[in-house]
Amino acid sequence: MGIEFRDVGKTYPDGTVAVTGFSCTVPSHRTLALVGTSGSGKTTLMRMVNRMVEPTTGSVLIDDRDVLGLDKVELRRSIGYVPQAGGLLPHRRVVDNVATVPVLTGTPKRAAREAARGLLELVGLDPALGSRYPAQLSGGQQQRVAVARALAADPNVLLMDEPFGAVDPIVRRGLQDQLLQLQAELGKTIVLVTHDIDEAFRLGDEVVVLKTGGIVAQTGTPQQIMADPADDFVRDFIGSDRAERSLRTVAVDGRSLVVDGDGRPVGVLEG
Amino acid sequence: MTLFGDALAWITDGAHWGGAGGIDHRILQHLLVTFAAVALAALLALPLGLLIGHTGRGRLVVVALAGAVRAVPTLGLLTLLGLALGIGIEAPLLALVALAFPSLLAGAYAGIEAADRGAVDAARALGMSEWQLLTRVEVPLGADVIVGGIRAATLQVVATATLAAYISDTGLGRYLFAGLKSRDYVQMLAGALLVAALALLLDLTMAALQRASRPTTRKVPA
Amino acid sequence: MTWVQANRDYVLDMLLQHVRLSVPAILISVLVAVLLGRIAWRWPRAGTVVLGTASLLYSVPALPLLIVIPVLLGIPLRSGLTLVVALAVYGTALLAGTAADAFRSVDERVREAAEAMGYSRAGLFWRVDLPLAVPVLLSGVRVITVSTVSLVTIGALVGIPSLGNLLTDGFQRDIRAEIVTGVVATMLLAVALDGLLVATGRLVTPWRGNVATGVTT
């Protein structure tokens, strides 16, 4: 069960190879973070799940069913999708944005709007914001709406395409916390694309580090990757050498203070 | 469809060429009136447009003027001036100048406006005078838009010059009105085809000119 | 003013004729131009041909077009249909490029997200692309509306009645008041239709203009 990438590859008609021979399984209720620089094929891989891109080799399966055998539109409606910044429908009020998929699948508008207001609360927004247009919200609020919209049809699978990439670090942190809390309650199967390794480590149960051309540099839990980077590429990508990653403890007034490579304190060691 | 054949035969008939009312004479007349009107209008509109574009003052007036003139029926302008000035060439010429003016003005102003503000700012910071800024940065960068304005004006003038034959014995439009009056559809169609061909050729020429004046952006290898 | 008072019925009749000729021409232009613009947007290579032909057609002056169309379609020169077709060709030629631009103006991120959420092809067109193309499209429709209303007057030269009759009749009978009335009435009609378009535009794009109000974080 879950999502399975079975030896998938994607070569575009112009000969560009985006992904080659990628295999990976995301168990149900877990989060897979695909992380890499631009051109690493991470977005291509995620888009194969809802057939926004179709693999040229191999197959993608959701709960053991090949997505290529499913109706494209039906498939997409059954999967929650959180786009990058700017993916809300600018001409629809916030409630109607959230109610999009339920309305598409035939839920009466009133009921869908009612449910949408509840979802706004779930993602930490004032339901009164529902009657605004997306452009009247801040970037962080817009991405909360995007998350609410993705959850509206109660899908089992969520795809997230650099969902918090365009907001400032403090807001991003808040959005990540919110997502972790939601995930603890809802237990969706999530494929998340990001170029931010810290985000991948925070949100992913499993992380795939990709190199240019969709080549897997390393797959593992955040702990495994941090503890044992596979090669120099991964070491460089996760920033093992960066000062804020090389922590050590110093004793100050009888307590163990954790400091980074530059000697700046980051916390206190407990126990 | 035989009408088209007849019209082509009418055009290629040697008897309709040469002399005061000949096709060649009328084509020349049509072109001369067009160029004269565009040139006269340009003399006034281009400097004004450049000034507005450079200073940024009065742009609302330009936009409003260009919009308003589109709404004026050209035939009304022609007939009014025709009544006021009589049968000569003055009335159509004045009407054509008035029609060409807004397009030229808008083109000149938009051309300057289109020049990359960053480049203009940098040039000012380098110490260029306002005049140097206009002639060496803004005009070269906006040249194709300015020529685009001239193209639009020419297109409009060459079309309206056809209507001018209604109030004055000028240009190719005469064949249309003469044919209309004598119910000679062949002559009328021949006139229509001549005007259409002339306008097309002129516009294609102007389009080529516009392409040629597009600023070449040289890419510096990294 | 005395001329207008003495000829009120005539002016109103010509105004009505003018509306009857210009409104269908504008509506046909919009429909055909949106179709062509969509084609040009969807298939850029075919689009180059379509838009190139349109701009070529646009450079043919209206009066010759008016004379060629009856020969091509086999309809009488003095019929209102001739003028409507000529103006529709003209309006389409002018608007097709703008229509293609209008579809191009739709944010690709929005289209992608909508597609990923499961909009069908038709749904994407009617509920996402078309509404979001309205602002740019409308700017083009305003231009062709004004130019079409003004161009209807030349029909009077070949005997298709409109406010243009006030121009030709006034010229032939040397009545300046009649010409001025014709010019002013034509312009007022253009302004009125333009105002109607602007108002409709505001009504169908409520999300614009509200943007600046009440942003909170």
What would you say this structure looks like, in words?
The complex is a heterotrimer of chains A (271), B (222) and C (217). With 271 residues, chain A is α/β, with parallel strands linked by helices. Chain A has two domains: 3-242, Rossmann fold (3-Layer(aba) Sandwich); 243-271, no CATH class. Helix content of chain A is 33%, strand content 27%. Chain A has helices at residues 42-49, 72-77, 94-98, 100-104, 109-122, 139-151, 169-186, 197-203, 222-227, 232-238, and strands at residues 3-11, 17-26, 31-36, 57-62, 65-66, 79-82, 157-161, 189-194, 206-211, 215-220, 248-252, 255-259, 265-268. A six-stranded mixed sheet of chain A has the order 6-7-8-3-9-10, with helices on both faces. The longest helix of chain A is centred in the middle third of the chain and has 18 residues, at 169-186. With 222 residues, chain B is mainly α. Helices cover 79% and strands 0% of the residues of chain B. Chain B is built from nine helices and no strands. The radius of gyration of chain B is 21 Å and the shape is elongated. Chain C has one domain: Orthogonal Bundle (MetI-like fold). Helix content of chain C is 81%, strand content 0%. Chain C has helices spanning 2-6, 8-42, 44-58, 62-73, 80-104, 108-117, 121-151, 155-158, 164-172, 176-204. The chains are: A alpha/beta (271), B mainly alpha (222), C mainly alpha (217). At the B-C interface, helix 3, helix 4, helix 7, helix 8 and helix 9 of B face helix 4, helix 7, helix 8, helix 9 and helix 10 of C. Chain A: Pfam families: ABC_tran. Chain A: GO terms for molecular function: ABC-type quaternary ammonium compound transporting activity; ATP binding; ATP hydrolysis activity. Chain A: Keywords: ATP-binding, Nucleotide-binding, Transport. Chain A: It is an enzyme of class 7 (translocase). Chain A: This is ABC-type quaternary amine transporter. Chain C: It is a multi-pass membrane protein.
